[in-house]
Model the fold of this input.
Amino acid sequence: MKSSIIFSILCISMQLVLVSTSVAQAPKGMGKSDPEAKKVLDAVSAKFKTFKSVKAAFTLKIENAAGKVQGTKTGNVLMKGVKYKVAITGQEIFCDGTTIWTYDVGAKEVQITELDNSSGSITPQKLFTNFYDKDFLFVLNPEVKRAGKTYQVVELTPIDKTKPFFKVVLEVDKSTKVIMSTRVFEKNGNRYLYAINTINTSSVIADDSFVFNAKKFPGVEVIDLR
Done:
């Protein structure tokens, strides 16, 4: 699978701007969200807003309908305010809050675009906060315990039924209030598991980490789409 496609799937649950965590207003007949699930998600959002920066290592697994792993990718993400950098096998994405550089390692090509908040552009920040705010109905499932930790499980259903996925399941570390895994269920049977392996919320990250420096990547073709 191409790295660009993988990043798009990884970003299903990612979007910019920390907005208010109001309960989704679904069309008539679709039911309502679970207030207890909202409490968990609100706590996640509130906790994330206290972080000055985030540095995390993650694994992205692609599974078929039977749960068999079809592929695995690993990567790292840096976040600081509205800035971010994502590095996943074969691709790196930089964003300084205004400009996005998407670097395809294999093609030795970088595309430059502007960040357009009005279009609902995708960024890692929303993975850790309230990407559920107006797009999903959500319920709280039973907690699970694994390796000495307790995880709160929230299941989300998209209000827009034209989405390629029909369900997203989050596992939230009950003690830290951080989303540690996101599993996306597609209508075609594929599943995508985005799991946080390590996370550091006290790192000092330089601003130039979020800017693509062409001098560090000699021979790379620059395609400016702005």
About this structure: Confidence is low (pLDDT under 50) at residues 1-27.
